[in-house]
Specification:
Blueprint: H1 5-16, H2 18-21, H3 32-44, H4 49-70, E1 75-79, H5 86-89, E2 95-100, H6 102-117, E3 126-130, H7 138-145, E4 154-158, H8 167-180, E5 186-192, H9 200-211, H10 226-230, E6 235-242, H11 243-250, E7 265-272
Parallel strand pairs: 1-2, 1-4, 2-3, 4-5
Antiparallel strand pairs: 5-7, 6-7
Helix pairs in contact: 1-3, 1-4, 4-11, 7-8
InterPro entries: Ppm1/Ppm2/Tcmp, SAM-dependent_MTases_sf
EC number: 2.1.1.-
GO molecular function: methyltransferase activity
Length: 273
């Protein structure tokens, strides 16, 4: 399994719980190959994976909606955008910059362009950039993105990415953000707390990735303590919550009662000082 294949899985997760994710466009990415993987994932990892990703999407959609309600001239910068579709749910005038590895960006740009052309999707102002977070330098990434930030403030979204990166690359990205952003700008980020690594469900996740890693692509399997976010120079943690807590609000009918039984990600909102 390649990292970009997880983008199809995550979009399918959102489509399975549309009333929670509030993403009516996720289903556009659904395909038979991804659908065939889900029963095994639910059985071998966790039956709650789809609902948790829908909850994560809902949280960030509400944060983005609130941010751009107060800052209607701002820009969404989506690092590791995958097949997320926030830009089509947000108001039409919001400018979006999508950043990911080249295979995802090329495919997404082509599909989105066709869907806008045939009326499946509403028109939006979107810039696409292929970036390899590991190999591109801080200077290269900033030079590529900065000229396209014509409207401020910015909201940087880093969703479903840090698990696959190492510490060096993670630090590089937050350095990039600090160079791109100004006071009042925000970051939304997702990561696992270190204690999650000791749970059975997390180890089932690692086993699944390793067993299905037919390309020998390296996954960092990174966990990050909340202290990391609180120590980032120039930023303040405005909000910190986990999916277990959010489930009680967005999906009480799921009866998610044991935190250690799910792949419980922590979600953060940071503000540039």
């Amino acid at each position: 399994m390649k990292v970009h294949e997880t983008a199809f899985i995550v979009s399918t997760y959102r489509s399975l719980h549309e009333t929670i994710s509030k993403d009516p466009y996720a289903r556009l990415w659904n395909n038979d190959k991804t659908n065939s993987l889900l029963p095994e994932i639910f059985q071998q990892i966790s039956s709650k994976e789809a609902i948790l990703h829908a909850i994560r999407n809902r949280f960030f959609l509400e944060e983005l909606t609130a941010f751009f309600k107060h800052h209607p001239t701002g820009t969404l910068i989506n690092f590791g955008a995958g097949f997320s579709m926030y830009q089509f749910i947000l108001p039409a005038h919001i400018h979006t910059i999508e950043i990911d590895k080249q295979p995802i960006i090329e495919y997404k740009k082509s599909q989105i362009g066709q869907w806008i052309k045939d009326g499946t999707l509403p028109p939006r102002v979107i810039d696409y950039h292929a970036v390899d977070f590991a190999t591109n330098t801080t200077k290269e990434i900033v030079a590529k993105i900065a000229p396209y930030i014509q409207h401020t403030p910015t909201f940087v979204l880093l969703e479903g990415v840090l698990f696959f990166l190492d510490t060096t690359t993670t630090n590089k990205l937050f350095e990039v953000f600090s160079l791109l952003q100004k006071p009042g700008d925000q970051i939304g980020s997702v990561s696992y707390q270190p204690e999650v690594a000791s749970t059975e469900v997390y180890n089932r996740l690692l086993h699944y990735f390793d067993r299905n890693n037919q390309t020998n692509e390296l996954f960092a399997h990174q966990t990050i303590p909340s202290s990391f976010y609180h120590s980032i120079n120039g930023y303040t943690v405005e909000k910190e919550i986990d999916e277990f807590t959010l489930a009680a609000t967005y999906a009480p009918e799921e009866n998610i009662l044991i935190k250690e039984a799910i792949l419980n990600e922590s979600l953060y909102i940071l503000k540039r000082r």
